[in-house]
Amino acid sequence: MMCPSATQKPAARLTALVLAIAATATSAQPIYHPPPGQNFEGVWLIQGDHSAIRTSKGKLPPMNRAAAAAYAAHVKARKAGKPDFDTIQTCKPHGFPRILFAAYPIEVLQEPKQVTFIHEVHHMPRMVYLDRTLPQLEDMDPNWMGLSAGHWEDDTLVVETQGFNDLTTLDTAGLPHSSEMRVSERIRKLDADTLEDLITIDDSKTYTQTWSTRVTYRRQPGRRLKEYVCTFTNPEAHSSEPAGGG
Amino acid sequence: MRFLLHVGLVGLGVLAAASTARAQSDVVEGPLIRPAASSSDPRDLSGVWFIRLYNRQINSTLGRLPPFTEHGKAEWDKRVKAEKDGSPIADASAYCWPHGVPRVMNSPYPIQIIQTDGETTIVHEVAHNIRHIYMDQPHPQTITPTFLGDSVGQWEGDTLVIDTLGFNDRTWIDEVGVIHGKQLHVIEHIRKIEDGHALENIIRIEDPEFFKQPWYARITYAWRPDLRLTEYVCEENNRNMPVNGHTVAQ
Q: N or C of chain A: less Cβ packing under 10 Å?
């Protein structure tokens, strides 16, 4: 850092001094600021109830016969109070894309090569890599959240996710999916405080055609993510936090 | 063939050395490769880092046990004995709970630091612990105790200083038997060292219930741009699920 020189004029010295103070201010650090239209940073909360998702046209997704039978069994089990199919009953992850429908806030963090979604529920992170493409499905280890790669198309974040296990459902009601599912998203701001996610499910083992659903999130100014601890594994001291939801 | 033989012998040598080191001090070596340094900006901590010289017993700068109070020492002795007797007392991580601070900073898994406006976030691969460090602001006036506490940060020169308090008393400070109570107050000084190839974290630990005076631990992390965090789901097939407070290996 340059010190104000004695030979500088008073005004220049003052400017230099102000700059020097600014440079040592506590908050000075390299922060990436996305272009305004692509800036999704902040905390968001889903709008509406998406516990039983429908297509963008308001219909039940086009399940094949086996999937329809599995779905009917899930709905029946839930009604009977024994939703054993539901992974969050035992504090296992919601999986993707179900976590997108959870009624808990999501924090978005943006960097040039990565958009990170932190879900309050189960403190689950999802990294969307902007600098890599997805491997072939057969080369991936299936997991709960899959692997996400994205890119910007103008102000829309386009994300592809695959590499799932088949232990989760797409919603609380119990829409099934296979490990071959591929999920595409188009995420954009409708206005400064509304984020839209158009989600397309491509899973020919489960659905007779690809289908889409749409959710919106509302900005939560000043809200911070709380620590969420699922209590199934805590038989000795239950906290007041719910065991799941959404 | 000769090359393969050579590699094999070196491999055996490394294995032998590693197992000796492990047997002696429980130390697991960090990554041996040394990729290019991180960004030249000393305040740009963003990216993936991996602990070096991980030790189950946190590396106190004293080179010996922390200055326990009588109570702290008794809790330490109890845990060391339980482990020696083959029935270790379960810490928070065995229940798949968040690991606590500074315990989570002393874990043999990669961490990713993300710096955004007003916040520094540390995403830990282990049990997807996530630390939110709010920059340039005081702690809230009322804090509900949590596993990871409430963290605020600020830059002092090129050192990120993180102040964390508001803990519950369910986590440990290390994996052996240094524990803490709700009065725990942790101050971390994190800065780049070795021309950006590594991070240093000097951790000040204060808890009058367990320690006669504040003490320090020092941990360093290697810059690992070649790594990406992978999914870690503790609740899936947890082979160490505690029974009556004790870990039972299955």
A: N
The minimal CB distance from A127 to the residues B115, B157, B229 is found for B229
Binning pLDDT at 50, 70 and 90, where does residue B247 land? confident
Using the structure block, give the residue that is written with the tokens 């596993």. B147
| The CATH homologous superfamily of the domain defined by A41-219 | Calycin beta-barrel core domain (2.40.128.20)
Number of domains in chain B: 1
CATH of the domain at B42: 2.40.128.20
SS3 label, residue A64 = coil
Give the domain range for residue B54. 27-223
Do B235 and A230 count as a contact with CB atoms less than 8 A apart?
yes
- The predicted model gives A170-194 an average pLDDT of 98
Q: Is the pLDDT of residue A182 over 80?
A: yes
Q: Is residue B22 part of a domain?
A: no
Minimal-distance CA residue of chain A relative to B129: A123
Asked if B137 is an interface residue toward chain A (Cβ–Cβ < 8 A), one would say: no
Other Cβ atoms closer than 10 A to A47? 13
The string of pLDDT tens digits covering residues B64-115 is: 999 999 999 999 999 999 999 999 999 999 889 999 999 999 999 999 999 9
Give B216→chain A minimum CA distance, Å: 24
B214 CA to centre of own chain: 18
Please tell me whether the peptide bond between A176 and the residue prior to it is cis, using omega within 30 degrees of 0.
no
Q: Is the pLDDT of residue B125 over 80?
A: yes
